[in-house]
Each structure stands twice: as structure tokens, then as C-alpha cells.
Specification:
single chain, alpha+beta, 7-stranded mixed β-sheet, 6 helices, disordered N terminus
């Protein structure tokens, strides 16, 4: 493993140079928006600076309604740094924009250490609305040059520029700063990943589920001192909604959907703290307000990939712990990663096919959860699939790309329309869910 990690380190440093993913000359960079636990009147913003934390001063965010640029507000940022892997010396800033009008357009800049960013524009999240339309980008297992994360990002950015996504989320394994977790984590690849994604992450919230490749430990340093920190880069570079356990597991709401995230790298067994939190969150979800309920996790519950087969088939640990909850609370879709391929299942419970789509790929009022593995977002793919193909596995693929999902109300029906899009913009798989709006 050490030799492969060393080779990866050399390749990565060369690749980052070739991609010209360069630092912003000590100014703010890697801007990334996120929803907070306080609803659509807030938006969190995180960014980095290559200034050493020992020389970092203050940071702030300034924003105004795009239609009223003189009506500005500002908020101070907290600042911290971390160590991890092969070392890093920059600074991280977190701030929150408050008192936003739901759905309104805002333009903002951030400032740190006397340097100000270019302006970016975003829309505040809408009020919860079962009939609203929302457009999501769906990713998993991305990286930069390990192997084609930069190409997936480029296609997503191209589409986002022409027809903006409202929100993006990734189901773990973000930067591939290490391919041998928790060893040899190259912090500059976290920087490269943040720069690569900034064109969409700075203009619409980007929500992140933790994966096994985020598991490198380190320390965090802030105004209170220096402390040990697991998943050091993942937990210090961004702040997800604080309604679960930090960045490890949380939920976020957007228009007609609630997305619950789960950490497959800590105990999720029945009765564990995380399992109890997940059940309580599912149980507290008002389905008249949020008719769409999703789970995002990294390691898959179902996948037809032959690698680690026993972990993601019926009877595996995730299946045993979570499928009863998914059925009980009528979770619509589980979004997964880890196995580097695309998977789409039937409506399935404990290996039994409960419902199939029609010839167009439309599931009508499916009685059990559908599982989507979108781990095609950049990481090396060499999948070999289970033979014979399980009855619950409907579509498999190894084309690089991402998912685009639109939620809407069409007449008397709630609809979910999903397309798996390649890096050249072609649709690899298309499917939908239709259920009653009553």
C-alpha cells in the first residue's frame, strides 16, 4: 500500500500542476456555500486562505440583495487551521449570512487578511413547500485527477452556468487526497478539489456526506487551543448543518425534500447513537411538507459490484440495520457511493423485488426504497459485477458522470425525474418516480 500511495502522491502533484489549479495569491479561495440548521433565512459560507494561521487576522462576509446592491449586511468569520496527513499551513474561515429572504437572489464577497474575493451570486433556499420544484446535482467518489473528477466538475459547471442547479450533494469520498486512508493524505489535493468545485459551490449550496477516504486524523487549532481531530480536513474545511453530530451526520431540507446523511465509518447498528438519531429524524419528518425523503450515505446498502460483495447485498450489516427503518418511514431513495460504478435497483426490501419501473423507467408509487449509486464522479472505475445479476439490480454502468434530479408537482402527482449524465453531456440512464400528491 505504501508504494502505491507514493506513486499516487507523485502523480497527484504532477496532475494538479497540469490542471493549473493554483492558489489565489493569499486571497480567499475555495468558497463553498452550505445550508444551516436554521432554515432558509441563513446560508453558511466557508473559504480558505493560503496565509499561515499564525499570521491570519480577521475575516468577514458582506452581502446584499442582488436587486438592491446598496442594502448591505456583513458578518464576522471564525478562523481556524488544522494539521493532517503530509501537512498544511493555510487558514479556514466560516461565516453565516443571516436574515435572508427565502428564494431571493443575493450577491456577496468574502474578505480575509485584507484580501477580498470576487463577487458571487446565489439564491437563498425557498420556504418548505411540498409543491415546489427543485433541481439537484448528485455526486459520489469524485476527486480531482484520480482519475477524472476535474472532467466531471467541468461538465457540471457547464450545465450549472446554463441552467443552474439549486443545490448539489456528494455521497462521500470527496477529494481523494489519499487513496490509502488514513495514510499519506496530501492536503494540497483538498485545495485543488476546493478550487475545482468553486464555480458551482460558491453559487449554490454544496452538501457533503463523509466517506472512508475522509478518515485521516490530525489536529485543529483555533482561538481556544489545539485539539486532536478525527477526519481533520473534512470537519474543519466546511461546516454542515449542526443538527446531528457535527459534519459526521446531519440532515438538510430544500423545498419539497429532506435529505438525511449517515456516517458509514462509525457505529450505525440498531440501537447505536447514530441509528437512534436517524430514526428520530425520519419520525419527525412531516411528509405533508417534505413528500420526498432521501438518505445519503457512502458505503452502499445495495450494489451489484462484485468487490466487497457481502457488505452490500441483503443480509449485510447496513441492510440489517437500516432497511427496516427505510421501509417503516417510506424513504424514497438512498444515494450511495464507495463502489466505483453506477447502480439503479428495483423498489426492493431485503432482496425481494417489491416493484419495477415501466418500459420508460418510471416507478409508480413504489412500495419500497430505490437505491442509486452515483460513484461515477471521477474515481478510477474497474468494476466487475455480480453474476448472475441479482433480480433487484436493474441498471449498472461505468461511464464517468453525475446525476441531475428534478422534483416537481405535475397535476395531481409528485414527480422525481433523474438523469445520469456523462462528461460529454449525454444521458446514460433516465428514470422517474411518480406518486400521488394527495
Amino acid at each position: 500500500m505504501a508504494s502505491s500511495a507514493t506513486s499516487f502522491r507523485s502523480l497527484s502533484l504532477i496532475g494538479v500542476s497540469l490542471l493549473r489549479i493554483t492558489a489565489a495569491a493569499q486571497g480567499p479561495e475555495q468558497l463553498s456555500l452550505a445550508l444551516t440548521a436554521n432554515g432558509p433565512t441563513e446560508m453558511a459560507i466557508a473559504w480558505a486562505s493560503m496565509d499561515a494561521w499564525s499570521t491570519a487576522t480577521s475575516g468577514s462576509v458582506t452581502w446584499a440583495p442582488t436587486a438592491s446592491p446598496g442594502d448591505t449586511a456583513s458578518a464576522s468569520a471564525t478562523t481556524h487551521t488544522y494539521t493532517g496527513g503530509l501537512g498544511w499551513t493555510g487558514s479556514i474561515f466560516w461565516a453565516t449570512m443571516t436574515d435572508l429572504t427565502p428564494s431571493a437572489s443575493y450577491t456577496y464577497t468574502v474578505e480575509s487578511n485584507g484580501n477580498r474575493s470576487a463577487p458571487f451570486t446565489f439564491h437563498a433556499a425557498p420556504l418548505p413547500n411540498a409543491s415546489a420544484t427543485a433541481r439537484f446535482a448528485v455526486l459520489a467518489d469524485m476527486g480531482t485527477i484520480e482519475l477524472l473528477g476535474f472532467e466531471v466538475a467541468a461538465e457540471l459547471i457547464k450545465e450549472h452556468s446554463a441552467n443552474p442547479f439549486d443545490i448539489s450533494f456528494i455521497s462521500g469520498d470527496l477529494s481523494y487526497a489519499t487513496v490509502d486512508p488514513p495514510n499519506f493524505e496530501i492536503q494540497q489535493l483538498w485545495d485543488a478539489w476546493g478550487r475545482q468545485d468553486e464555480p458551482f459551490a460558491a453559487t449554490a449550496p454544496f452538501m457533503m456526506t463523509v466517506g472512508n477516504h475522509e478518515s485521516s486524523p490530525g489536529t485543529i487549532t483555533n482561538a481556544s487551543g489545539t485539539f486532536p481531530q478525527e477526519f481533520a480536513a473534512f470537519t474543519t474545511r466546511w461546516q454542515m448543518p449542526q443538527n446531528g453530530r457535527g459534519n459526521y451526520y446531519f440532515y438538510f431540507d430544500y423545498a419539497p425534500a429532506r435529505v438525511v446523511t449517515l456516517n458509514t465509518e462509525e457505529d450505525y447498528s440498531t440501537g447505536s447513537a447514530q441509528w437512534n438519531w436517524i430514526e428520530a429524524t425520519f419520525a419527525a419528518t412531516d411528509r405533508s411538507t417534505y413528500p420526498w425523503l432521501f438518505l445519503s450515505l457512502h458505503r452502499p446498502i445495495y450494489s451489484a459490484d462484485a468487490d466487497e460483495e457481502n457488505a452490500h447485498i441483503p443480509g449485510g450489516a447496513l441492510s440489517v440495520a437500516l432497511e427496516p427503518l427505510l421501509l417503516k418511514y417510506k424513504v424514497d431513495v438512498v444515494f450511495e457511493g464507495h463502489q466505483h460504478c453506477y447502480d439503479r435497483t428495483a423498489s426492493v426490501y431485503n432482496g425481494t423485488v417489491m416493484g419495477l419501473p415501466d418500459a420508460s423507467g418510471t416507478y409508480t408509487s413504489p412500495p419500497a426504497t430505490i437505491y442509486i449509486n452515483q460513484a461515477t464522479s471521477g474515481a478510477v472505475m474497474d468494476s466487475k459485477f455480480i453474476t448472475p445479476t441479482p433480480a433487484w439490480s436493474l441498471v449498472r454502468g461505468t461511464t464517468y458522470g453525475f446525476g441531475r434530479m428534478t422534483l416537481a408537482t405535475e397535476g395531481a402527482s409528485r414527480t422525481l425525474r433523474y438523469e445520469y449524465v456523462s462528461t460529454n453531456g449525454t444521458v446514460v440512464d433516465r428514470w422517474a418516480i411518480v406518486k400521488s400528491a394527495a
